[in-house]
Design a protein that fits this description.
single chain, about 190 residues, mainly alpha, Four Helix Bundle (Hemerythrin (Met), subunit A), two-stranded antiparallel sheet, 6 helices, about 65% helix, elongated, transmembrane helix, Metal_cation-efflux_comp
Length: about 190
């Protein structure tokens, strides 16, 4: 029962995020924003939907229970949720589940973006590991961590290229590698 409540809360959160993303997409496109990565976005949606199906199947079929380490995992999950909210609110109307870039817009470099270029991808990666581990669903944790790493190897370069082509992204993150800035104090 606890599993189903937890799963319902996480799925409800994702649906709310999709509603916000759609609203932000309309706002951005009215201002001339351009969408990139449509082909791989479908794969991302498929992977995330399949994640919940596989998690549900593994927990029910293999009669998985709450992990012995659930207090620690729950704390880690709550930390990721705080990080998610921080990342999304820092981007404001520029946040989206798609790659949508408004040409000439100022790149957001506040909140967690002052410390790392892709905090939300790190958070999602952690969630895809923590959520299944909460219920000892090791197969789901391993499989979707690998699938997520694979899709992010496509997604992040596509997003960075779009930002470099249409904004001052290179200048804003000149001293930054893919995830962690080399020098946070510059620019």
């Amino acid at each position: 029962m606890l599993f189903f409540i937890f799963l319902a809360v996480v799925i409800t959160q994702r649906i709310i995020e999709l509603v916000i993303a759609k609203r932000n997409e309309r706002w951005l496109k009215k201002r001339g924003a351009i969408e990139f990565g449509k082909a791989h976005y479908r794969i991302i949606v498929f992977i995330h939907a399949l994640f919940f199906i596989c998690l549900l199947f593994e927990v029910i079929y293999f009669k998985k229970e709450l992990s012995f380490f659930w207090p620690l995992l729950l704390v880690l999950f709550l930390i990721t949720q705080a990080g998610r909210i921080w990342a999304l609110t820092s981007l404001g109307r520029y946040w989206n589940t798609k790659i949508i870039v408004l040409p000439g817009s100022e790149v957001v470099k506040k909140g967690p973006y002052q410390f790392m270029k892709h905090p939300n991808y790190v958070i999602v990666s952690l969630e895809l590991l923590i959520v299944p581990l909460l219920f000892d669903a090791y197969i789901t944790a391993l499989l979707f961590s690998m699938l997520n790493a694979l899709i992010l190897s496509i997604r992040i370069p596509a997003e960075e290229k779009a930002l470099k082509d249409l904004t001052e992204y290179d200048r804003r993150f000149a001293a930054t590698n893919r995830f962690i800035p080399k020098n946070v104090n510059k620019v």
